[in-house]
Structure prediction request, 179 residues.
Amino acid sequence: MAQLEQIERELISESKIRSRVRELGQEISRDFDGETVILVGLLKGSVVFLADLAREITVPCHMDFMSVTSYGNDTESSGEVRFLKDLDEDINGKNVLIVEDIIDTGYTLREVVKVLSARNPKTLKICTLLNKASRRLVEIPVAYNGFDIPDAFVIGYGLDYAQRYRNLKYIGILKLIEK
Ligand code: PRP
Prediction:
């Protein structure tokens, strides 16, 4: 059976994203006044959010990236995470802010936090654009949260379906259609 997909509707508009990202940037800048922050993006979904967020942050910041993937099928994470690319920077004694596009089960961040906290950063916090709290299987302390969203298949603004839709300016809900 072939599977098609279509965008069912817009969930969060471009302008809502822009103003929320600005608020998050201001909050982060206040909290880290006088400090330098390393923004750690988890590839690839966080790239669009991180690029916009960084430009709303007024304290000095660095950007670094990690790539992790979870074992399992396309829709359900198994809880096992494999690291594909590590950070370039040494984070010992530094302020680290993990920047994510979405937290679902929390498995990815649980593993990333475990690995990064073992490197003794000065602070380690999480900033996510989207939070699907109803799907959480492990507790993740989120310092900065853009939007709580329902359990729908969301795409756009960095989030993909089969690598497509990452370049949409808004967050949409995708509908899969069996043909
Ligand atoms: C997505 C998202 C998070 C993770 C969240 O990444 O960017 O990293 O899933 O799910 P979890 O809370 O259940 O672990 P994905 O593996 O789709 O890769 P991508 O960022 O390259 O799209």
Summary: The pocket of PRP is lined by residues 42-45, 69-70, 77, 100-108, 160 (CB under 6 Å). The longest strand covers residues 61-72. Strands lie at 3-12, 37-43, 61-72, 77-85, 95-103, 123-131, 144-148, 154-155, 171-178. The radius of gyration is 16 Å.
